[in-house]
Design goal:
By secondary structure, the protein is α+β, with helices and mostly antiparallel strands. It is built from 2 helices and 11 strands, in the order H-E-E-E-E-E-E-E-E-E-E-E-H. About 25% of the residues lie in helices and about 35% in strands.
Length: about 230
Amino acid sequence: MSYRKRTAVLASAAALAGSAVWMAAPVARAEVVDVNYQCKTPIGDKSAVSPIDIKGVERGDGYRITMSWQKGVSSSPVELGKGAMTPSATIALGGADSGTLAVTGPANDAAIPANTPIKISDLSGTYTPKKSGEVTFTAGVLTIKALGTTTTCTPTNDPGPSLTLDVTAASGGGTTTGSAQGGGSGPDSGAGLPQTGPEDSAVALGTLGGTVLLAGAAGALWLTRRHRQAGTGR
């Protein structure tokens, strides 16, 4: 086979390899979804709409899942002092998996004035896949405990998933557990680790595809130089 044909074959193989890597890439889609909460409070029913963002960071055989509220939900007729309010929530799993994931977070780090929307801190938990495939994460029930009372907020608008992941089950099955620490922007949020958003996946895959193409080009250059050396008797 001539060196020109070898070069063409190597270039084609590199391109196909890059395409195969791209097509086999894990699916990761995230979007902010408006959730209409209907809350049962000690002083009556209330409602509020908040955009919900759910992110996942891969850790070992599982994922660190963080749920964030962009607007406050419910309110209190009296001021809630620092540390008086503790939130928790559930995330509904769908697709290849089912059930719920419990997410928890810290108490409020500052006083919340009376009759103002309660800002929920980022809540997080650890998800370990029980089944392989595409799994969706959708906002579930929010629970707020404060001053000996409990407020339960339930989505009523059938919100769509805020996060979709293509996961692989760990050997021996998996579990879903809550975390006592908040996620998001804090030091426990997985800073420095690759997030599962589509932009990060695209960058990583683009880099890998480029590496494959560069390797093919290097092989073609080596064959060309060897052919020239053979022709000159060196």
